[in-house]
Amino acid sequence: MENAEPDEKVTSAKYPGLLITKEIIPPTKPNTDFQVVGLGGSAGSLEGFETFFQHLPANTGMAFVVVPHLDPTHKGMMTEIIKRYTSLPVVQIQDNMEVEPDHVYVVPSNKETSLERNLFRLHDPEHPKGQRMPIDFFFQSLAVNRREHAIGIVLSGMGADGTLGVKMIMENFGMVMVQDPHTARFDAMPRNAIKTEFVDHVLPVENMPEKLVAYANMPPIKGNHVVEAHKSSQMLQKIFTLIRNKTGHDFSLYKRNTIFRRIERRMNSHQIAQFSEYVQLLHENPQEVEMLFKELLIGVTKFFRDPEAFYLLQEKYLPELLKTKKDGDYVRVWVAGCSTGEEAFSIAILLQECIDKLNLHLKIQIFATDIDPEAIDRARAAYYLDNISGDISPERLRRYFTKVENHYHVKKELRDMVVFAVHNINRDAPFTKLDLLTCRNLLIYLSSDLQKKLFPVFHYSLNPHGLLFLGSSETISGFPEMFTTLDSKWKISRRNETAVPLARLVEFPFNFTSFETVKPHPEPTNHVKREGNMSQLVQRVMLHYFAPPSVIVNPKGDIFYIHGRTGKYLEPAQGQANLNVFDMAREGLTFELNNLVNRASVLHEPATVENLQVKTDHGDHFIRLTVTPIKEPAQLQGMLMVVFEDMPKPKPKAKRGGKATTEDASQKDARIAELEKELQYTKQRLQTTIEEMNSSLEELKSTNEELQSANEELQSTNEESMTNKEEMQSLNEELMTINLQYQTKTEELTNSNNDMKNLLDSTEIATIFLDNELNIRNFTPQATQIFNLIRADIGRSITHIASNLKYQHIAEDVREVLDRLRSKEVHLQTVDGQQWYSMRVLPYRTADNFIDGAVVTFTNITTFKNLEASVAATSLYAANIIDIIQQPLVVLDGQLRVECASNAFAQAFQLIPEQLKGQWLYHLGNGQWDIPPLKELMNKVLLEGIEIQNEELEHEFPVLGYRRMTLNTRRVEQTENKPFKILLALEVFEK
After folding, report:
1. Is 654 helix (H, G, I), strand (E, B) or coil?
2. Which residues in 764-850 belong to E strands, given as ranges?
3. I need a surface site. Which of 304, 454, 493, 562 has the fewest CB within 10 A?
4. Are 65 and 108 in contact (CB under 8 A)?
5. What are the residue boundaries of the CheR-type methyltransferase domain, all occurrences included (predicted)?
6. Do 824 and 856 lie in a common domain?
7. Which residue has better confidence, 192 or 502?
């Protein structure tokens, strides 16, 4: 598809609120035939560029454009780097630079580059940093301006830049290659490009040049082979049949040029030059049929495509439409050919903003349909890559989308406006009572006959003054009585209220025959059975030798059975093959054969003519022709048997004078006799026809008045029936679509409920869901171990349910949480004292962040409580052991602070036991333990982990006097979260 050249470039200043990408100007006439290869990459792509040019041979005849996705403030060194790996000239692109083959061009990092009429154009970036998509920008211009000579290559990188560009290249019959994600340092860009399914080859970078050269050296297919393909409708019919059998869709109504260009692309990808070879490949490889089907369904779309058109729709035409609505009314929209849903959500955003601006209270219902089930599944998921930020303003992103990692998810309020369904526009019933119908960039692929059928359907589907929104290259010319053009540039039209002419009434479903096919002849009603006895065999032999040649026909002349050799009397007719006796009769036989068949079928009696002269390849022959109605058996009733019998040549008549006539006179007399006989038969046939006409005239006159009187009533009734039928078809289709949507949602809810049930069961946490009135909404099976609950208790207040807990203030805790919107946690014990639970109360928040009750969970912490009690008992046990030890013993932490000490230690050094805990070892006794040798020993214990054994230490204490001590230590390691401890045991000897 080539768009017309725009009158002006769209700028964001002119249309506030929209992110306007620069207009891509297509060429009026391509002046070169060489391929232009765009290489896009981001993080980690430098190695890919180096590898690609290292393996690229010289003199390929192609131009190469390197588009790195770099920081705009980064000073580019790409040109100098690439020069090291290729002998081709490498230059940085400048404005108005002409592209030439066997050159490498590098896009500047602070500019956005497009290709227009074989010239590079540099543009200042309009999007903020982080939202620029330079690879998409260049690939789109490359696709539109170079079409089948465009090649896009996506290398390593983060994000999704290049994804939309590869779709555009594929749509315009170019070729796309992507680096194998397993060989890419960063695989996000390659994987996002592969997800589009618009990729020809996924290869390591070192294999790309070889495949690229092979593709460039492929002989052109659109020459003689395409001409042969146009002539060979049978081969094309085979392709359509294969696709229809595989997918159920008929592409015979698509434009032939588009079909052949898509087939040509697939042939190029397989390096097949013969059309017949590709048909054979389709027969042998069903997967290729699926790939061709996807090729024919290429849908390139994005949010707010053609921003000026959407701006005009939002600012001018939609407000006029919405002002005619009343509060509570529905705004119904049909987006035909929605692909992956971007356009449907764009329309939904415009409508919602218009409704908010006009302060109206309207409901939006959008039906988005497409023939591709995979595209519909992606549209229903409503997940889009983060590169949509280049098409949607930040305000709209914040309002209508949620950022999830590197994707944007459509919010529920917008998603609920759109119903997605698989729908074939030329087969399924249309949606009706629409206020807006958008069918953009779809009609350009359909044949003119189908387009002529679709516009009456569009007129029928729209409400009075409803809007029709087409693509910029589509037109409604030829239907001025149905639509009034509002904007000729962006193809926005309004439905006229005038009645549609009778010749253009909606004819649905459409019936087309794309190829002339031979009509199957009716099979004979009788079937010849194999003979099982001698008499039947003898009869068959006798018929073969003695019965004259004959054929069994119906009154229309269609042959059902042939007996004997009839080639002397019948021959195949020229043109389309058929088995009609009137068409096959030889010269001289047609008139009499027709006359006898008619007489026999009307009078129900045999009719015969003799001495009938028939011209054959071996001269004239005279025959007897007999036509006999068949009355038995019942299977052949109504059939006629035509019998051909040879007769001798009649003798010439003698003149009155007795002398023989000459040969010329004999022939003259025979001719006159033949003409007289023919005239006689003609008179008889005419007389019979007149009598039949007179006999039927009275009947016609008697019924004529009745027919005339009923004609108008039947006509009006027929129109009403057609209208009711179409409305029923449309309503049925709409109901089926909504039902399918509900089925999909039901399946999603069922899966979600199953997941939630398994999640709650696996946690083994008792959970009770309460509403704002403390009524039970649901509970898990584990909750029955704490409360006496059954399923019938759902809807009762939690205060009415008995529990086996000692705690009786659960209702007050729930009300407190609902009032303060803060969670609360309490440890509770069962009445029997055997179990402990941690009760946690949280507000119940909906997806829209509304408080709709509370969630009460009970986690069994009996093991924790038992462990806690065990630890407390163990600590008490250890303290008692230390107290009864007669030897001085002190327990130190990792900082040499006292945790506990034995009574013997306090008594030996005259210390107060209650003041020891927490004191530093060297501060004990008002600093009396600040002993340098002791410090040296304890440092070894702390830093080197050395155990002290029977080390003697002498010290003069100011109060106690001289003491000789024997020291022993033991380092006790604990868990990871707690530091080690040091046991210090002493033996004290006085002087």
Report:
1. coil
2. 766-770, 776-779, 824-829, 836-845
3. 562
4. no
5. 232-496
6. yes
7. 192
Residues with Cβ within 8 Å of 877's Cβ and at least 6 positions away in sequence, in order, are: none
419 contacts 450 by C-beta, under 8 angstroms: no
Phi and psi at 216, nearest 5°, equal -70, -30
pLDDT band at 351; cut points 50, 70, 90: very high
Tokens of 550: 């004959």
pLDDT tens digits, one per residue of 761-775 = 776 788 899 998 889
Q: Is residue 1 predicted with pLDDT exceeding 50?
A: no
- B/e letters for 59-96, b = 16+ CB within 10 Å, e = fewer, are ebebbbbbbbbbeeeeebebbebbbebbebebebbeee
CATH number for the domain that contains residue 64: 3.40.50.180
Nearest-5° Cα angle at 784, 779 to 789: 75
Is 134 within 8 Å of 39 (Cβ atoms)? no
Q: How far apart are CA 891 and CA 101, in angstroms?
A: 85
Who's near 689: CB < 8 A, 6+ residues apart?
Answer: none
Q: Which residues contact 903 (CB under 8 A, 6 or more apart)?
A: 883, 913
Residue 973 burial (10 A CB sphere; 0-12, 13-18, 19+): exposed
Residue 650: what are its φ and ψ, rounded to 5°? Answer: -65, 145
Over 80: is that where the pLDDT of 589 sits?
yes
d(CA 282, CA 661): 74
Residue type, 587: E
Same domain, 830 and 902: no
Q: In whole angstroms, what is the distance from residue 659 CA to residue 657 CA?
A: 6
Q: Are 322 and 355 in contact (CB under 8 A)?
A: yes
Average pLDDT, the chain: 78
Q: Would you tell me how many other CB atoms lie within 10 Å of the CB of residue 6?
A: 15
3-state SS, residue 361:
coil
Among 176-180, 327-331, 698-702, 859-863, where is mean pLDDT lowest?
698-702
| E-assigned strand segments in 851-904 | 851-860, 889-892, 898-901
CATH number at residue 896: 3.30.450.20
Range of the domain at 563: 536-651
Percentage of the chain beyond pLDDT 90 is 7
Parallel/antiparallel/unpaired status of strands 201-203 and 550-553:
unpaired
Of 199, 186, 177, 134, nearest in space to 157 by CA: 186
Q: How many CB atoms lie within 10 A of CB 408?
A: 21
Angle, in degrees to the nearest 10, between helices 275-284 and 233-247: 30
Instruction: Name the residue with tokens 């779709």.
Output: 167
Residues 6 or more apart from 514 whose CB is under 8 A from it? 237, 240, 250, 252, 253
Distance CA 164, CA 302 (A): 8
The yes-or-no verdict on residue 976 having pLDDT over 60 is no
Contact partners, residue 164, CB within 8 Å, separation at least 6: 133, 136, 139, 140, 300, 302, 387
How many domains does the chain contain in total?
7
Q: Which pair of structure tokens corresponds to residue 628?
A: 């006999």
Helices then strands (H, E): number in the chain? 27, 34
Residues 835, 907, single domain; the answer is no
**Do 425 and 456 reside in the same domain of the chain?**
yes
Burial class from Cβ neighbours inside 10 Å (0-12, 13-18, 19+) for residue 504 reads middle
At 526 the pLDDT is: 40
Active-site residue set: 42, 69, 161
685 occurs within a structural domain: no
Same domain assignment for residues 920 and 822: no
> Which pLDDT does position 5 carry in this prediction?
36
Q: Which of 737, 654, 786, 731 is nearest to 419 (CA)?
A: 737
Query: ω before 30 within 30° of 0 (cis)?
Result: no
pLDDT at position 991 is 59
Task: Tally the C-alpha atoms within 13 A of residue 874's C-alpha that lie toward its C-beta.
Answer: 6
Residue-level pLDDT at 354: 92
- In this structure, what DSSP letter does residue 20 have? P
Higher pLDDT, 750 or 692: 750
